[in-house]
Write a structure and sequence with these properties.
Structural class: alpha/beta
Shape: globular
Strand content: 5-15%
Largest sheet: 8 strands, parallel, barrel
Helix content: 40-55%
Number of helices: 13
Radius of gyration: 19 Å
């Protein structure tokens, strides 16, 4: 395993993090979810990502159970606030953050969270209120570092100014980023680089599409994420990753990987971790073997020329439009509910 500091002021994290957004407490039996965390630890993964909204808190509970007895200083526990909680105050209001933070600490069975992230931007709450609530959490010792997830560049820049004034700088952004989805490249990455904010990206395998298991003209395999009834189908289909055009391009990329003696997941993960802006990539898994198999991307040499070839093969279906940053998409949809 390799390790890097997250942003200019964040914790040292493993280059691959383990996340349980669609698995723990949802698509996996508890024993399987716990086994995946143990496999991640055995592989040298020190960084674990979850959120209060995942499986309505069950994901945090299972992560806490899995890490019980592990030296607390040896792991980086990351969670998020801002999508769960039901009706009431704004998702990132002071009241909601305070209540959610205490609940997350209880479910995780820990006295502090290493990285607390704002899950999407909250238009209904003044940004100053959100950042002050984060600063108070840091000063109370409940949180070590703060970050955001799926915010647009202008939102990140405004938050960074306030955070710096409050003495608790933003250290990270958690966007979707992979060979197919590159909307952060035009605006978010340059803004974060200038501010010393690191990238902790999610979905480096595009929800499994970049494993090659989905084939053009064929139904998704039984039991795969694309047909799961508990979130996986929505997360993949939202981005139109299952069109025949996309899957045909992915198949061409898979052929290039095979010719080079690599698997497509190895190649896709190596591409995501190829350069400085991405500090760590969050992977999920349904079995321990998926973790160990994919982690070979860190130790397998990949020819830069091959990465360029794969890039070219996927160019016709790659999405770059910064307007499709999730925060912007949801804001636009709130103004016009007819948008998809």
């Amino acid at each position: 395993m390799q390790y890097r500091r997250l942003g200019a002021n964040g914790p040292v994290v493993s280059r691959v993090a383990f996340g349980n957004s669609l698995t723990a407490g949802n698509q996996l039996a508890d024993d399987a979810a716990l086994a995946c965390v143990r496999a991640a630890l055995d592989a040298g993964i020190t960084t674990f990502d979850t959120a209060d909204a995942y499986a309505e808190g069950r994901a945090e509970e299972l992560l806490g159970r899995a890490l019980a007895g592990v030296d607390r200083d040896s792991v980086v526990v990351c969670t998020k606030v801002g999508r769960g909680g039901g009706p009431g105050p704004g998702a990132l209001s002071r009241e909601r953050i305070a209540a959610s933070l205490d609940a997350s600490l209880r479910r995780l069975g820990t006295g502090h969270i290493d990285l607390y992230q704002a899950h999407l931007y909250d238009d209904s709450t003044p940004l100053e209120e959100t950042m002050r609530a984060f600063a108070d959490a840091v000063r109370a010792g409940k949180v070590r570092c703060v970050g955001v997830s799926e915010w647009a560049a202008d939102e990140i820049e405004r938050a960074a100014v306030l955070a710096r004034e409050l003495g608790v700088p933003l250290v990270s952004n958690q966007p979707q980023y992979n060979l197919l989805w590159r909307v952060i490249e035009a605006e978010v990455l340059p803004a974060c680089a200038a501010l010393g904010i690191g990238q902790m990206v999610w979905s480096p395998l595009a929800g499994g599409v970049l494993t090659g298991k989905y084939r053009p003209g064929q139904r998704p395999p039984a039991g795969s994420r694309a047909v799961a009834a508990r979130g996986g189908d929505v997360s993949i289909q939202r981005w139109n990753f299952l069109s025949d055009e996309v899957l045909s391009a992915v198949a061409r990329a898979g052929d290039l990987a095979t010719e080079a003696g690599l698997t497509l997941p190895q190649l896709a993960l190596a591409w995501t971790l190829r350069d400085e802006p991405v500090t760590t990539a969050v992977i999920g898994a349904s079995t321990p073997t998926q973790i160990t198999r994919n982690l070979t991307a860190l130790t397998t040499p990949v020819d830069p020329a091959l990465l360029h070839q794969v890039d070219e093969a996927l160019t016709p279906v790659t999405v770059h439009d910064p307007a499709l940053t999730l925060s912007r998409m949801l804001r636009a949809k709130s103004r016009n509910p007819t948008l998809t």
